[in-house]
From TrEMBL, chains A, B:
Domain HTH marR-type per the UniProt entry, residue ranges: 16-144
Coiled-coil parts of chain: none
Keyword DNA-binding attributed: yes
Keywords from the UniProt entry: DNA-binding, Transcription, Transcription regulation
Domain of life: Bacteria
Stated name of the protein: Winged helix-turn-helix transcriptional regulator
Length: 144, 144
DNA sequence: ATTTATATGTTGCATATACTACTTTTAACT
DNA sequence: AGTTAAAAGTAGTATATGCAACATATAAAT
């Protein structure tokens, strides 16, 4: 078999242009950068994201976190459960629980914030204003 | 406790500007879009990405795929194993195996390509040239 | 008020991912 | 040649994610 892809010749897009795989790849790169800086703090970049979001939302229904971060409700459920086990989050015992940072959680946010600001500075330095504009652009366009 | 974050007042970046979480979120949105269109083809967006990459690389050492996609070697090992189980990929039995698409694999690439082109058209329509420029910009900057 | 529909949460399952430790192979050095 | 160092692969473990199925609670409709 020759395996000649009939789309290769004048294909409108090349596989390497795939928007999905490129975003995933860039995400992995940036996340890797975050992890390198978080290695001493025993927390993942995803958990940090949720802590930061919750520090702004205060006491909220769990579901709102998923809406804000575009995360499936079951994913939120499990992520929150891990953070609760770590003592960073408290949950009301309702069926539809409201969640909230504990004192430990707020302390962790304060610990992480300067580290995060440092990482941001580095990344902004790497991406430059054009890179940031690009990211904002992507976001705006995806919202609709 | 007051939970007054001393960084809130004149903090250089707001948590919502986090480059990591924003990229992750956009990735989830775009991947979700891909999944919606792939639902009839019993394949994930990640597996499609590897199939497309392999269709260009032909017979390669497994490790090269990880280099190309910025994936950890163990991740590649498992992803390839799943594709092998599906019959899309064949692996030499060496300790350091070379991998290759099977005829089934190439057939799947041909099946997926028009679908993928359609998704790309939609996404390019959503993002526009400015969104695409932004993505390219991010990539260029991350490479260095 | 009862029933129905919708929204929210959790659990089971499968994939995706990275890190560590271990194995094996190849390369380098002497 | 023999030893050491580096590279590549795999398996174990933990987190992250989404979907389907189910449970429960709230809202809507009659």
């Amino acid at each position: 078999m020759q395996h000649i892809n009939r789309y290769i010749c004048p294909m409108k897009y090349d596989y390497s242009e795939c928007i999905g795989s490129r975003l995933r790849k860039i995400s992995r790169m940036v996340d890797s950068h975050f992890r390198q800086h978080l290695v001493d703090f025993d927390i993942t970049e995803n958990q940090m994201t949720i802590l930061f979001a919750m520090s702004k939302m205060k006491k909220v229904e769990q579901g709102r976190i998923g809406k804000y971060l575009y995360l499936e409700k079951s994913t939120v459920s499990r992520n929150i459960k891990l953070l609760e086990k770590r003592g960073f989050v408290s949950r009301s015992s309702d069926y539809r629980p409201t969640v909230e940072l504990t004192d430990e959680g707020y302390k962790m946010v304060e610990t992480l914030t300067p580290v995060w600001l440092g990482i941001m500075d580095e990344l902004v330095g790497v991406l430059g204003s054009s890179g940031l504009d690009g990211l904002r652009n992507l976001e705006t366009k995806m919202r609709t």
